Amino acid sequence: MADSTLCATMNRGNLLPVSVRNIVTKSRTFAEAAESYIENGGEAKYLPPILKLLGDRVLLDIHPFDIRKAVEQLYPDQANSTRNRQGITPIRAVMSHAYDRGWAPLMRYPKFKEQRPKRKNPAGVVWLHCFMAQAKRDRLHHLAALVMFMSTSGARVSEAVALRWSDIDLVGRTATLQKTKTSTNSVRVLTDGMIEMIHWLAPRKRNDRVFRYTSRFSVNEAIRRVCHRAEIDYKPSHLCGRTSFGTNSISMGADIKSVMEAGDWKSVEVFVTRYVHPRQPGRRVAELFNHQMAESGL
To answer: Based on the domain organization, do 207 and 271 belong to the same domain?
Structure first.
C-alpha cells in the first residue's frame, strides 16, 4: 500500500521513468476518471448505469466501438437522441476529462445519427380559446388555469403540477418553479390573464398545490376529455404547454433569445428544432417585406 502511494505521488510529480509512468497510467479505470470528473464539477446525472458497464474497464482499453455497444446495451429501445444525450455525451465528458489528466488518449466519439423530429402542431390561440371555454363550462377551473400557465410561461407539466402557493408572488407577478429539469429553480413572469385566473382559484394553505393535480397522467387524461367535449383535436400537455409557448411567442414577434430566457431553454438547437414550429413561414416573411416596402415607398 505504501509503495503504491509513493508511486502515485512520484508519478504526479513526473519523477518516475516514462516506462513506469505508463504502467501507472494504464491502470486507470473509467470509474476513477468518472470520480475525478465529478469531484471537479462534472455532471453525474447519467453516469450510474454507465459505470455498471464500463466502471472496471481500463481507460486505454475503451474504444469508440466499445462505447457505442455499451450505449446500445443501456438504451436498446430508446431514440438515438436519447442515446446521445444520456450515453455518448456523458461518456465523452469523462473520457475528455481523463485525457486532460493524461490518463487516456484523445479520441473521436461519433454520435448516433438522429432523425429530424416529426413536425408537431402545437396549440394555437384559437385552440386555446376553445379549450378554455369548454373547461370553464365544465367548471374545471384548475385545469383551465394549469393549461393557461403552461402555455404562457413555458412550464413543463411536471413543474406546473408541483407548483405550490408559496411559490407564487402576486405582488411581483412571478411563479418560481422549484428544481426544474435542469436541477435549478426558474422564475416565470405571470401574464395579466394568469393573475386573474389565480385569484379565482381561492388559495388554501401555502404548501398546497396551486392546480391541485398531482400527476401529469391525470392532467393529460383531463385534457383529453375536455377536447372530446369541445370537439377539438387532442393536444397533450407538451403541445398545449411548452411547445405552444415557444411557437406562439416567436409567431407574435418575440426574439429567440428573449423566449429562450423566458422559458429557461439552454440550447438554441433544441429550442429551434423541437419547440418552434412556424405557421406559413414563407407567407409571413413575404408580408413583412410587403409592409417594409410599402412604408419605404419602394
So the answer is: yes
188 has which bridge partners?
A: 175
15-45 pLDDT, tens digit each: 434 444 454 455 899 999 999 999 999 999 9
Backbone angles phi, psi at 287, to 5 degrees: -65, -35
To which residue does cell 508519478 refer? Answer: 11
Residue 176 pairs in a beta bridge with 187
Same-domain check for residues 17 and 91: yes
Q: What's the CA gap between 269 and 260, in Å, rounded? A: 11
Domain count, the chain: 2
Asked whether residue 61 falls in the same domain as residue 149, the answer is no
Contacting residues for 271 by C-beta, under 8 A, at least 6 apart: 246, 256, 259, 260, 265
Same domain, 189 and 273: yes
Domain of 221, in residue numbers: 125-282
Cα separations in angstroms, 164 against 15, 208, 222, 231: 59, 6, 20, 32
**Co-location of 180 and 94 in the same domain:** no
Report yes or no on 258 lying in a domain. Answer: yes
Question: How far is 79 from 182, CA to CA, in rounded Å?
Answer: 21
**Is-contact 255 271, C-beta < 8 A?**
no
Q: Which of 3, 270, 11, 67 is nearest to 154 (CA)?
A: 270
pLDDT in tens, 130-148: 999 999 999 999 999 999 9
